[in-house]
Design a protein that fits this description.
2 domains; four-stranded mixed beta sheet; alpha+beta; 7 helices; Glutathione S-transferase Yfyf (Class Pi), Chain A, domain 2
């Protein structure tokens, strides 16, 4: 298998962290330069029709896009260590928390950054600064929820590290482009959790593709 990816981009990083947590060693990586529009090239669009990263090329010639779908596939192929739940109840609650992070923290964060940061103008053309500012405000509701959750739980989905923590961590780290630091913004529990996750070996996965 081969993962088409982009260093430091939040969704590819989710998959890299997932792979690292699983200890999977038989996936090749090919980095795309997003600023150079390599994800718009015809040969890549044939793999990912919406020109998004990451894409996982399977050994049978098919291609999986969407980071959550890629992780679901890898969870099935490499079941240990489990990151998505061991039974129906745990799977449902982990997925619920992962989706809450995706919709109410990650999505507005991505829109805030993509429409506000000058370094991303090539990817979000045209940028709409007012939309970015509005999404920056909207994300606070998600961060408030996450802060409350982490004030009573060690991990995003409860008692153990899961894919929900990976999604949340990649989002918080992406926010560093805007010089966001949870503690400075009034989120001490998110900061403490972030610092614990950053100590995991998987935290640096995907930052550089050699």
């Amino acid at each position: 298998m081969k993962l088409y990816t982009a260093p430091r981009a939040p969704n590819p990083k989710r998959v890299h962290m997932f792979i690292a947590e699983k200890g999977i060693s038989d996936i090749a990586f090919e980095a795309l330069d997003l600023n150079a529009q390599q994800h718009k090239a015809d040969d890549y669009v044939a793999k990912s029709p919406l020109s998004r990263v990451p894409t996982l090329a399977l050994d049978d010639g098919r291609h999986l896009t969407e980071s959550r779908a890629i992780c679901t596939y890898l969870e099935g192929v490499y079941p240990d260590p489990n990151l998505m739940g061991v039974d129906a109840t745990e799977r449902a609650f982990i997925e619920m928390h992962d989706r809450l992070v995706e919709w109410y923290v990650m999505l507005p964060t991505a829109q805030w950054i993509r429409h506000s940061h000058p370094g991303l103008a090539a990817l979000e053309n045209p940028q709409f600064p007012e939309h970015g500012a509005a999404q920056g405000e909207r994300r606070k509701a998600g961060l408030d929820w996450l802060e409350q959750q982490l004030s009573t739980h060690d991990w995003v989905a409860g008692g153990r590290f899961s894919i929900a923590d990976i999604t949340a961590y990649c989002t918080i780290e992406f926010s560093r482009l805007m010089k966001f630091k949870p503690a400075d913004a009034g989120y001490p529990h998110i900061q403490a959790w972030r610092d614990r996750v950053s100590e995991r070996p998987s935290a640096s996965a995907g930052d550089r593709i050699d």
